[in-house]
Design brief:
Layout: E1 20-22, H1 30-39, E2 42-44, H2 49-58, H3 67-71, H4 73-83, H5 87-91, H6 97-112
Parallel strand pairs: 1-2
Domain Transposase DDE: 21-113
Pfam families: DDE_Tnp_1_2 (PF13586)
InterPro entries: Tnp_DDE_dom
């Protein structure tokens, strides 16, 4: 989250705080939700069944899920699946982060250029 940079349409420095984060149930911990809430970021993260049962048992309200925002998450998932067709990218053979990032950039270019 600290490395996010969202370019602005006009001049100015990039934004470092997205409007919304969409993630799967693996990222529904209270620590992540608290972090997002503190930074003013909306979360489109469904709750795990054990968290739902705990909230019901304690008498707390359930987290509301923006289903429309969560459904748009599949676009990103499909992009990752297309990127994993590159064997070196899927297996993460590179030892250095900058080499892996360069490989991701090349794979994205191969997707976008016909």
């Amino acid at each position: 989250m600290a490395r996010i940079r969202i370019q602005r349409c006009g001049p100015g420095r990039p934004r470092t705080r997205p409007e919304r984060v969409a993630a799967d149930k693996g990222y529904s911990s209270m620590k992540i939700r608290t972090y997002l809430r503190r930074r003013g970021i909306k979360a489109a993260i469904p709750e795990r069944i054990d968290q739902i049962n705990g909230r019901i048992r304690r008498g707390e309200s359930l987290c509301r899920l923006d289903r429309a925002a969560y459904r748009r998450r599949n676009v990103v998932e499909r992009c990752f699946n297309k990127l994993k067709h590159n064997k070196a990218l899927a297996t993460r053979y590179d030892k250095r982060a900058r080499h892996y990032q360069a490989l991701v950039t090349l794979a994205c270019l191969r997707l976008w250029l016909p």
